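Throughout our pipeline, every protein is held as a single compact record rather than as scattered files. Nothing more is needed to write down the fold, since each code stands for a local backbone conformation. For reference, a complete record is included directly beneath this paragraph.
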Amino acid sequence: MIKKAMIMAAGAGTRLNPLTQKVPKPMVPVVNTPILEFILKHLQKYGINDVIANTHHIAESIQNAYGGKNHVGINFQYVYEPELTGTAGGVKKTEFFFEPGDTFIVISGDALTDVNIEKLYEKHKKSGAMATMALKEIPISEVAHFGVVVLDSNSRVTGFQEKPRPEEAKSNLVNAGIYIFETDVFNYIPANQFYDFAKNVFPAMMANNELLYAHVIDDYWNDIGTIKQYKHSSLDILAGKVNLDIPYPETENGWIAESADIADSVVFKGVSVIGKGSKVEDHVKLSENNIIGNNCIIKAGARIENSIIWDDVVIGENVSLDNCIIANNVKINPGISVQKDSVIGHDKIISCPEDYLQDLVKI
């Protein structure tokens, strides 16, 4: 079975701005847990405890959380890339981590998934391939956002299309950014060059008649590349559509940390997640699905509906949020009704609508 993994964690995550302006994409919290931590814990379930990642954007955030001894209990190493070198180029920089003859897994640092790694490994070994890709079937109408993969009847890869229009797509199977490799794959990746798997490595392998196969997964997978996809994944976890653990005890009102302080008069409708050290004061209304981070204060009379609030946020008295995302260290002063579908970036004080409308991002 696989013993080592590489996580591609160097992306800038610009499509998630303003959420990624001060947090790298793999550290974006989904239900108060960084995406990267979900990946690490999922790898652990399959006995994979030796992990390396490439880092770039706000790399110190990843390094501080998991480098050296960490709370996850995993051997985590990292390589910093001053300049990005592509998906394959980033993996090449971690070649030293693997022994010749190793079979290892590579997974994107923005992929929320409960993929069955054992099944993927078995398919890979049975085929005798140098590389096996995990694919996900999606509606043909959505292929324009993804890399499409074309297979023959034996699941061998025969071609690629990068974000084709639906009417031009040769397949509705998309690259999930999860690969099983033999170390011979490094022979197809030159050092210190910008190199991509789908554009460079895999076509070269196919031209050389190497075995490149794919396995269509029926597990949960979502590429958290946009704010809408981020929100969608969060709701999927609350709905139990993905087999990942929410880090708090389950109650009749959702998942609430034991150290959270919830007033008796708080009205719950739907389910909520409330993080460690957070305080929800009198007569707050929490409707539909809400995720409240750690060390937040929700002041009396606030109304929060279908929203995601990150850590260290203060929501003032009688504030109204509807389908909003609020990043870390934001303070919203009393009485403000934030425009529906708003995304507010880090470290802001909102005293009037103009404080966020000038750079408003919508879900």
Notes: The chain is about 20% helix and 30% strand. The chain has two domains: 4-229, 250-362. The domain at 4-229 is CATH 3.90.550.10 (Spore Coat Polysaccharide Biosynthesis Protein SpsA; Chain A).
